[in-house]
Amino acid sequence: MSSSTRRAHGVDIREAVAGDAEDIGRVRHASWQVAYSGLMPADYLAGLSVDGFVLSARRMLADRAARRAEVLVAEVGGVVSGFASVGPSRDADEDRDRVGELYAIYLDPAIWRLGIGARLQQVALQRLRDEGYAEATLWVLATNGPSRAFYEHTGWRHDGGVSGFEAGAEVLDETRYRRTL
Ligand SMILES: CC(C)(COP(=O)(O)OP(=O)(O)OC[C@H]1O[C@@H](n2cnc3c(N)ncnc32)[C@H](O)[C@@H]1OP(=O)(O)O)[C@@H](O)C(=O)NCCC(=O)NCCS
């Protein structure tokens, strides 16, 4: 079946509320386990718990006003099945008033490739535009081919920025993408 015939219906994208932390944690955990299998060390991935992700989701939701960040969730059939977070760039070499960042975008693996990520990202980037940012960046694991394909399809380009992500005993290469808003 071609992806254009698999577009999802009944998708609602809204601002996250504090009570979404459990769902955001569950979605992030599930998404990591599938997307990063073979990219991150197996023992590191196996050691990550849903509870740990729920805890960081609670923190992210509680801190967002102070950090000028926003968190959006995608509900599919009334169930929170994805989230995205945005705010000012975290990079020391960027102007935090001009450059925003897509911090994270994760969907439950059961709903990948239905056009929901693109819609969620559109809303998230519109929030950055509304806040007056002119550009946005994001960091992605260099080995994360599917996500890089998604970003390249939706207007992002690698800008030469490189960094490292600590996954247990290993430091994995991350690459920065950029786009105008
Ligand atoms: C990345 C992610 C958010 C994309 O959301 P999605 O709903 O699956 O993607 P969409 O259906 O909106 O894709 C839009 C377009 O991007 C491209 N694309 C998306 N996923 C792709 C893949 N796995 N391989 C190649 N191209 C892909 C396609 O061109 C696609 O259009 P098409 O389906 O009409 O061909 C989602 O797949 C996800 O949560 N992945 C795992 C987590 C992750 O790696 N997040 C990013 C961390 S930096």
What does this structure look like?
This protein is an alpha+beta fold and 181 residues long. It has one domain: Aminopeptidase (3-Layer(aba) Sandwich). The protein is built from five helices and seven strands; from the N terminus they run E-H-H-H-E-E-E-H-E-H-E-E. It has a seven-stranded mixed beta sheet, with helices on both faces. The longest helix is centred in the first third of the chain and has 18 residues. The protein starts with 10 loop residues before the first strand and ends with a strand. It binds coenzyme A (COA). The site of coenzyme A has 20 residues, from helix 1, strand 4, helix 4 and helix 5.
Distance between the termini: 33 Å
Radius of gyration: 16 Å
Number of strands: 7
Shape: globular
Reported by name, the CATH topology is Aminopeptidase
Which regions contain 5 or more consecutive residues with pLDDT less than 50?
Answer: 1-5
Helix content: 25-40%
Following the backbone from N to C, one meets helices and strands in this order, namely EHHHEEEHEHEE
Nearest-integer average pLDDT: 95
Strand order, sheet with most strands: 1-2-3-4-5-7-6
